[in-house]
Amino acid sequence: MFPIAFENLGEKLQNAFKKLRGKGKLSEKDVKEAMREVRLALLEADVNFRVVKDFVSGVTEKAVGHDVLESLNPGQQVVKLVHEHLIELMGAAQSQLTFASKPPTVYMVVGLQGAGKTTSIGKLAGILRKQGKQPLLVACDIYRPAAIKQLQIVGNTYNIPVFEMGDKVSPVTIAEKSLEHAAANGHDVVLVDTAGRLHIDDELMDELSQIRQKVTPQEILLVVDAMTGQDAVNVAKTFDEKLGLDGIIVTKLDSDTRGGAVLSVKAVTGKPVKYVGLGEKLEDMEPFHPDRMASRILGMGDVLSLIDKAQQAFDDKQALELEQKIRSNSFTLEDFLTQMQQLKKMGNIKDLLGMMPGVNQAALADANVDEKAMAHTEAIIQSMTRAERHDPDTLNGSRKRRIAAGSGRSIQEINRLLKQFEEMRKMMKSFTGGGLFGKKGKFGKGKLPFF
Question: Is 108 helix (H, G, I), strand (E, B) or coil?
Fold first, then answer.
């Protein structure tokens, strides 16, 4: 999913660079006018003023140099500089979680109330479980009503156990006892859900400091709400000064038109954004890749994330079988149905299109991507017998009427599907000369194993 937080910013930056790309030669005035628009776009996205000032100054200084202005494609060179500076601003490279040399690895998750801390800690535990870890959630928020119950619900959602001792035992004791429980029950990762407040105070920080001393966390992760804009950056700065942060999780990037927190927090605190929250589901919390996000903001697409999603959704054995079927021209409607179901695992079609280079995010927002059509196609194929899926030529009038009744679709839709399927098979057959699979006939790195 492309964060709503960056839609406006991306559109404005891309519009600023269109003027530069259309010119064969640039003057210093051209560059400064474009950078003025960049400056306004960043400020409107609620990026920290000092960060914007340093960013624009750094890009302008390099952009007005002889090597850029006298190059064959000066407009493209300016975009390249902005791309590089955006990556540097957000952290240069992805910052991954680190693990203790001796388990359990303890992550202490902190943040103010309402930032999405409890939901995020559950999603993080779910991600770690997918990586083969055995996480344990620890309920140390004994003050907020139903906080323990909420963590238990989140734990059940992702099938992660929760350690709790009620709301009468001190959070420090709960955190300490959780390590004994983890060691006795084979948990190699412990995620401590701490209390939050509506604002930062000495009492909160004293308690968090005591927990830190008792459990010696591998990392302290702060959860901040993107919707609070610069307040999120200020909160991160204060928590870092008081506790010493190792990373930041930015939530609700799907709910606001500003992305200033993500663009500012690394520059202001020096601490990397490790994950971003883009929705309610487990897969909606993603590792933060500065280079990929910079590319998407500037309309360059995010093919690497698209490939990651494909690799998670598609089974290697199925991909190999698909290749062999296409090569032997034995691809059936059964295979077609399987591929559609695999594609759905990758997420919303519009979001996937948004990862493709050159796709205009603003235009895509208004595009009518009819995902119901996919459901209709599934219903038609599932209403066929296995023999009919393997040999569509057997579909006479009476069979089509039966399928139409079973799927709730019309005979015209069935005929259209069969025609499209036959055209697709012809296209696939032409690809087997090497276009789709490469010279060696294998899915190359970066190739997507679906039609």
Answer: strand
